C-alpha cells in the first residue's frame, strides 16, 4: 500500500508526496497540525493543509527570511520572530554574532513542542541562551513592546486561520512602532502565480507605513509554484545598498553575498505587482 | 467526475493538475505525446510523461532560453534552435531585430504539428519569413553545419528518449564546431533538487569544450522543483559583462535588463554543483 500526501495549492493544482508515516495529526487550539515523514523531503510540518517546512528544503525559507534583513541592518542586536515556532528562522538569526537577544512569539505552543520532537535539526537552537520563546499572540506582543526591536521577522502561515490579522495594515503599523528608529522588518508574502492580489495589497499597505519597501524572491520547491516572495519594510537602511564585500561569509546552503542583491531583481510580472 | 494529470517528477514526489479534456494522446515515431487542456495552466504539452510547456507559464522558459544568449552576443544574425518544436523559443528569438535567420530543427514533426494546432500563442511565429523549420536530427544538423551560427539554443527534453545524446560531450563539441568564432550556446539543464548529478556532469563536459561557462536559473512552476537551470557555453562573450543599460527593453513577462545578471547569481547549493 502506498500513502501519498496531496496538497491542493489551488482548486486545480497541487503537489503530491509519498509518505512513510504520520507521526501527528490533530486539531490544536488554533489550527490543524500534521507531522508526516515523507520519502522525498524527510519530516514535514503541515498546518491547515499547507506545507510549512520540510527537513530537506527548509534551509531556503529560513535563510531567506533572516539573512537579507540581518545583513541590511548594521547592528541587529534585538530581533523578534513572529510565528516561526519550528525554530528555523531563530537558528539562522543566531548565526549573526551581533545578535544579543532573539525573541520568538508563536501563538501555538504545539508547533514548538512537535518541532522540537520531530524537527530537531530545525528547532534545536530554541534552547540557546540568547533566545526567549513565548507562546503568545504576535499582534499583541508588538503592541506591548514599542521602540524595542532592530529587526522583526514575520514567519507566519498564509492569511487564513490564526495568521489572518498578520497581513493587515494595522499589523505593519504595529511593527513600525515596535521597531527602533532605524529598524526594519521582513514578512513572507506568498507567491505571485496564485496570490498576485495579496502581494499587491501587502505592498500597498507596507508602503503606507515604511519609507523603504523592497520585495525579493527565493525558490522553495514544496511551496505553491516554487517561487516565494518576501517583503522588507525599512525605516532607514536599504538592502540594495549592501555590497557583496560588506557581507560576512556564513555557513549557508542558499544565501550568498552575491545572491543578496540579486534576489531583489524581480521577474517582470512580479515587479509589476509592486508598482 | 474529476480528471487529474499527475506527474511523478521523482519516484516519491510530483505535481497534479485538474484536466478539462485531452486533445491528443499518441505514440509518435519518437515519444509519447499528449496535449491536455488543464484548468490552472491552460493547454499543456506533455512528452514521455513530462510537462514540456503550458500556455500560462511558458513565457518563463522561452524568454530565459533566448534572451540571456541573444543579449550576450553583440550581433546574433544566425540562430539555431535544437528541439523546441512548440515554437516558443523561436518567438522570443524573433523579438531581436538583429536576427536575420532562425533555424528550428526538431526531430519530431508531430510536436510542431500539434503545437500549431493547440498552442497557437506559442507556435504562431513558426510561419515568420525569417524562420526555417526542419524536421531532422539536431545532432546530425550541427555536424552538417560547421562554422555557421552565432547562437545555438538547445531546447530539448530531458535526457531520456530522443534527447539522450543531446546531453553528451560529443553534442557540446558539435555545437562548438557549428558556432562561428565568437559564438555561444545555451542549453536547458534540468533542476538542482532532483538532478544534481546531471548538472555537475554537464558543467564538467561543457567546460572541457568552451572557455566561458555560466549557469543561471529561472522559476518554472510546472517543472520539477520549480527551479530550472540553464547552462551557457561561450567562445568569447561573457554574459556577466552585459550591463542593464546595454540591454534594450523588449516586450517580456519574465526577463528584464536588471534580471540578466541577477539570474547568474546562484543559490549556494547550486553554485557548488558548478565547481
UniProtKB/TrEMBL annotation, chains A, B:
Which residues hold spermidine?
A: 62, 86
- Catalytic residues, chain numbering: 155 (proton acceptor)
**Annotated PABS domain residues:** 2-235
Among Gene3D superfamilies, the record links this protein to: Spermidine synthase, tetramerisation domain, Vaccinia Virus protein VP39
Q: Which pathway does the database say it acts in?
A: Amine and polyamine biosynthesis; spermidine biosynthesis; spermidine from putrescine: step 1/1
Give, as one word, the top-level EC class.
transferase
User: What's the EC number here?
Assistant: 2.5.1.16
Function, in words: Catalyzes the irreversible transfer of a propylamine group from the amino donor S-adenosylmethioninamine (decarboxy-AdoMet) to putrescine (1,4-diaminobutane) to yield spermidine.
Q: What is this protein called?
A: Polyamine aminopropyltransferase
Annotated source species: Cohnella zeiphila
